């Protein structure tokens, strides 16, 4: 697969009163058409800021993209004008957000909101755009799409709103779809519906999907490749099968062991004796990162070298990258 | 597990309906059947997990069981004593036995009080100790939940999410309650922090013989922490059994769908999913018959008219479904 989107050395910094926050600190990755890349990590690891950087939606000030390139089909999005970028957003790259209620316009009907991008990017007239909007609503399996197109966001349930967001994001047939925690605000039965929908639509549209999530279950079931981020940097990257079978970075292992798992514990009688493995401590403040490995203060394997020197991000096994001094190939 | 002591909490046919008011005269035009007749028991030293999706009434059930919202009808026994009908003053000693931890550690702590005062407040309100004793007790509680006693003079905004939840736990422990109602206590936390808080809760249970009513939408967490589990859907309990039976031998189609919807963090496992269609109906106009029939893949004609009762199909395993 050739890459559709190539990100290299992306740096997004925020200039705050406490100091410079390197929210995204030298991140590279590639995504091919038809591929789903998951970026996982906990709050503050930089996963959402990476997504917003791709859309050039970083609030400036205080934030700024300070380095790197974002090449979409060869064109560097960091080099084009804001006007040209406006033509890329919602057209070549679109994004769906965690909370559809706050990202939809509450005083505009669903149909109109979907039409907007079609009128803007596809030179359709209102009638054509509305017709296409209704087709999109049908595609994301909203019942009675013509009726729903006339309704406002508050008249839809959470799951329906997320479907409408997906319809809007896909209306212009984008090359890249960024989904930032698309199911986090939804109930599990609705989450299952939405994930199924995203996977199906991706096949149909053969878009590249970047899935931002904290949920390893969602990653395992939807992604092809995974990047694990911690404190603004990549700590590990591999295919989904490889990552779950042989996690290399202690942070990844820690994440996997800290979640209670239904599939493993099913049928065990005495669970009350079991403890979950915790990762001690908390994520360090990004304006005051330790020298050396950022994870060292919470890591059981950390030694003097980890505390003194930042580990290089290396290919430890074919296609499996990690930044850790203690993974020996 | 059968314990010799009377159950810490016994709730029978608890109902909580909220009126829907409309128009100039605020006439009542309908009812939200938030909790529509639930019966459950929390045994001493055990955890009952109450699971379900948003709007199923699990939070209201938890609050009504503590009389934090006044139930419409039903019976609530705390260690065998009926607390429905008690006046506020009569209820006070029972309040000490039941404490609650909330989901959002940001909005449930007073931002203008120091962490030490927050944890010490229940002691002050119930007049348990003088100032010096209070400080000692609060300091011991801080140490127990994994905070430094030096942090007592800090304000909530100076703590991380996980630490704030620890403050909430310390506050709940202050009066030495028998029962703690946890309303999604770990849902707002990152997974690595979530594990810390779950471990803390389970350690405290072992040490102090606490009972928990653990309300959550996260099945994996509920499975890990609970001895018994009640699954709720639209204000009613649809399945009630010990944890093992729920997870190895789920009988209600809704429980089955819930379990199959949870994503498994292992790409090597390929399962056939039972994906439910549609949304949860409104609790203002719940569907007739079995509330679940509109989404149930197995529904037959009878399900649409007749309300199934919660029946015992195996010792300790109750299901409310016509097809079982």
Automatic annotation (TrEMBL), chain A:
Q: Where located?
A: Cell inner membrane
Instruction: Tell me if Cell membrane is a UniProt keyword of this record.
Output: yes
Keyword terms: ATP-binding, Cell membrane, Membrane, Nucleotide-binding, Transport
What GO MF annotations does this protein's record show?
Answer: ATP binding
Q: Which Pfam families match?
A: ABC_tran, oligo_HPY
Query: In which family does this protein belong, per the annotation?
Result: Belongs to the ABC transporter superfamily.
Query: Per its UniProt record, what Gene3D superfamilies does this chain match?
Result: P-loop containing nucleotide triphosphate hydrolases
Give the source's domain of life in one word: Bacteria
What is the protein name stated in its UniProt record? ABC transporter ATP-binding protein
Query: Sorted alphabetically, which NCBIfam families does this protein's record hold?
Result: oligo_HPY
Q: Where is the ABC transporter domain?
A: 5-256
Q: Does the keyword Heme apply?
A: no
Q: How does it sit in the membrane?
A: Peripheral membrane protein
- InterPro entries found in the cross-reference section: AAA+_ATPase (IPR003593), ABC_Ni/Peptide_Import (IPR050388), ABC_transporter-like_ATP-bd (IPR003439), ABC_transporter-like_CS (IPR017871), Oligopep_ABC_C (IPR013563), P-loop_NTPase (IPR027417)
TrEMBL record, chain B:
Highest taxon above the source species: Bacteria
Q: Where is the ABC transporter domain?
A: 9-259
- Which CDD domains does the annotation name? ABC_NikE_OppD_transporters
Q: How does it sit in the membrane?
A: Peripheral membrane protein
Any GO molecular function: ATP binding
Q: Which Gene3D superfamilies match?
A: P-loop containing nucleotide triphosphate hydrolases
Subcellular location per UniProt equals:
Cell inner membrane
| Keyword ATP-binding recorded | yes
Which PROSITE patterns is this protein grouped with? ABC_TRANSPORTER_1, ABC_TRANSPORTER_2
Check the record and name the InterPro entries matching this protein: AAA+_ATPase, ABC_transp_ATP-bind, ABC_transporter-like_ATP-bd, ABC_transporter-like_CS, Oligopep_ABC_C, P-loop_NTPase
Q: What is its main location?
A: membrane
Keyword terms, alphabetized? ATP-binding, Nucleotide-binding, Transport
Q: Which residues form a coiled coil?
A: none
The question of whether ATP-binding is a record keyword is answered with yes
PANTHER family tied to this protein: D,D-DIPEPTIDE TRANSPORT ATP-BINDING PROTEIN DDPF-RELATED, TRANSPORT ATP-BINDING PROTEIN
Q: Which family does it belong to?
A: Belongs to the ABC transporter superfamily.
This protein is called Dipeptide ABC transporter ATP-binding protein
